UniProtKB/TrEMBL annotation, chain A:
Gene source species: Accumulibacter regalis
InterPro entries to which the protein is assigned, alphabetical: ATP_syn_F0_a_bact/chloroplast, ATP_synth_F0_asu, ATP_synth_F0_asu_AS, F0_ATP_A_sf
Localization per Swiss-Prot or TrEMBL: Cell membrane; Membrane
UniProt-recorded name of the protein: ATP synthase subunit a
An individual GO BP term: proton motive force-driven plasma membrane ATP synthesis
Repressor listed as a keyword: no
Source taxon at top rank: Bacteria
Chain segments annotated as transmembrane: 24-42, 78-101, 108-127, 174-197, 203-222
Automatic annotation (TrEMBL), chain B:
Membrane found in the keyword field: yes
Signal sequence range: none
HAMAP family referenced in this protein's UniProt entry, alphabetically: ATP_synth_b_bprime (MF_01398)
Chain's role: Component of the F(0) channel, it forms part of the peripheral stalk, linking F(1) to F(0). The b'-subunit is a diverged and duplicated form of b found in plants and photosynthetic bacteria.
Protein name: ATP synthase subunit b
Recorded topology in the membrane: Single-pass membrane protein
Cell membrane in keyword set: yes
Organism: Accumulibacter regalis
Coiled coil: 31-86
Gene name in the database record: atpF_2
Keywords recorded for this protein, A-Z: ATP synthesis, Cell membrane, CF(0), Coiled coil, Hydrogen ion transport, Ion transport, Membrane, Transmembrane, Transmembrane helix, Transport
């Protein structure tokens, strides 16, 4: 185990840029997802085939999951970002199962990039939904004294988002590597099954947390102005997941 | 745990590119297909609802028409019954009239048939009477009666009307020298023949040759044929004369 196994090892340089295996694997994941998307795009038909039905089912499930958290008129705006997060993180997590490859999400640089994108998109959707003044005002509510805590909360949750995904995937791969080194060739197979489950769970958690952050940013102003009103059960449930 | 800014920036760019690709080639087309399908389903549902409403309206209209037709049918049935009763009464009246006419015709026909039968019976009775008379006259016939009839013939020839006498003379002229055919029921003696020759010569205006032959069917008397003129002086022709006269009457 060396530092290269925890971060991304540099494979080659592209001018001044050092291209790591994380970036190359990400390109591979992108190629796979883009290829599937293009394949489906040009085979869409009014009467769906089995593949189209599966694709439509995935999109509909994601749309409904988003619709349970954000207002209905914002679902179609949020869907591309959240769906891409889910699909990318899931595929990237599962890429670690391929012998010789490492999951891009075991690299803190990649998870930090995703967390930074979630951070930026949260503010983007919030400002777009409420307007800049109204959006910034909610940091000073219910009291301006809470402004530093809001800011710290924004930063720490983003950092937690990046570290959580990085820590889980990195620890999984490391545990599998250790078991392989100590026990033998076929012993890590159950651990690989756990890897699949963990990949799905972590992708879901990452996406749902991003969705909750965005939903909190684009909450209607009326809800913001009546803090005594209880949150919706779905939102409360999602927030409980975040705390866990 | 290393942090590489190059990887960070490239990952951000990669994600944004992937986001654009998936949005452009996956989410939007699939959502468009889903929206189109949903719109089509909504349109078909609306169309189905519209058709259902139309069907309900048509059903209501059908029920109303059915009720109207039932009412109209009852009215027509009553009208038909009235018409039938009227036509039945009219027909019965016509039949009654026809029966009356037929009865009158039958009565007339029966009267005619009865009259015909009566006439037939009368004719049969007359025929029988004539035959009985002829039979009785045959028994009474004799040369004496024939001679008496010849005398009466000669008397009648002498008293012939001018018109008949002229016709006899014309017929006599036409036969020229031919003999006059005389059929006699009994043989004629010379006196009777001469008496006939004198009577004919007087009536015809000249003497005529006579050809006498027997004919018992005449019962009594003679029948003289002068050319186209026939002189009936016998009981058979007399009876036939009377029979024709009765039949004509």
């Amino acid at each position: 185990m060396n530092a290269g196994e925890l971060g991304g090892g540099v494979l080659f340089h592209l001018g001044p840029l050092a291209i790591t295996d994380t970036v190359v694997t990400t390109w591979g994941v992108m190629l796979c997802l883009a290829g599937v998307a293009l394949l489906l795009r040009y085979r869409l038909a009014p009467l769906p085939t089995r593949r189209q039905t599966i694709a439509e089912g995935i999109v509909v499930v994601i749309e409904r999951a988003i619709g349970e958290v954000v207002p209905a008129d914002a679902v179609r705006h949020v869907l591309p970002f959240i769906a891409t997060l889910w699909l990318f993180v899931l595929t990237a997590n599962l890429a670690g199962l391929i012998p010789g490859l490492h999951a891009p999400t075991r690299d803190l640089s990649a998870t930090a990039a995703l967390a930074a994108l979630v951070f930026a998109s949260t503010h983007w959707y919030g400002i777009r939904s409420k307007g800049l003044r109204a959006y910034l005002r909610h940091y000073a509510e219910p009291s301006p004294l809470l402004l530093p805590f809001h800011i710290i909360s924004e930063l720490t949750r983003t950092l937690a988002l990046a570290i959580r995904l990085f820590g889980n995937i990195m620890s999984l791969e490391m545990a599998a590597l250790l078991v392989l080194l100590i026990a033998g060739f076929l012993v890590p197979v159950p651990l690989l099954m756990l890897h699949v489950i963990e990949a799905v769970v972590q992708a879901y958690i990452f996406g749902i947390l991003a969705l909750i952050y965005i939903a909190g940013a684009i909450e209607p102003i009326a809800t913001d102005e009546s803090p005594a009103a209880p949150p919706t059960p779905t939102l409360a449930k999602s927030k409980n997941k975040e705390e866990s | 745990m290393q942090f590489d800014w190059t990887t960070f920036v490239l990952e951000v760019l990669n994600f944004l590119v992937l986001l654009w690709i998936l949005k452009r080639f996956l989410y939007q087309p699939v959502l468009d297909v889903l929206d189109a399908r949903q719109a089509r389903v909504k349109a078909e549902m609306a169309q189905a609802e519209k058709l259902q409403n139309e069907a309900a309206a048509l059903g209501q209209q059908y029920q109303e028409r059915l009720a109207h037709w039932t009412q109209e049918r009852e009215q027509l049935r009553q009208q038909l019954q009235q018409d039938l009763a009227q036509q039945r009464a009219s027909g019965m009246e016509k039949i009654r009239q026809s029966l009356t006419d037929e009865e009158a015709k039958a009565r007339v026909r029966n009267a005619a048939t009865t009259a015909s039968h009566e006439a037939e019976l009368i004719r049969q009775a007359a025929d029988e009477a004539y035959e009985n008379v002829a039979a009785m006259l045959r028994r009474l016939a004799s040369p004496t009666l024939t001679a008496g009839i010849v005398r009466l013939l000669v008397e009648d020839l002498a008293a012939l009307p001018d018109e008949q006498q002229q016709a006899l003379r014309t017929a006599a002229k036409k036969i020229a020298t031919e003999a006059v055919d005389i059929a006699s029921a009994h043989p004629l003696d010379d006196a009777a023949q001469q008496e006939i020759a004198r009577g004919l010569a007087a009536a015809a205006g000249r003497r005529l040759a006579l050809a006498i032959r027997p004919d018992p069917a005449l019962i009594a008397g003679v029948r003289i044929a002068v050319g186209e003129c026939l002189l009936h002086a016998n009981l058979l022709d007399e009876l036939a004369f009377f029979r024709r006269r009765d039949e004509q009457s």
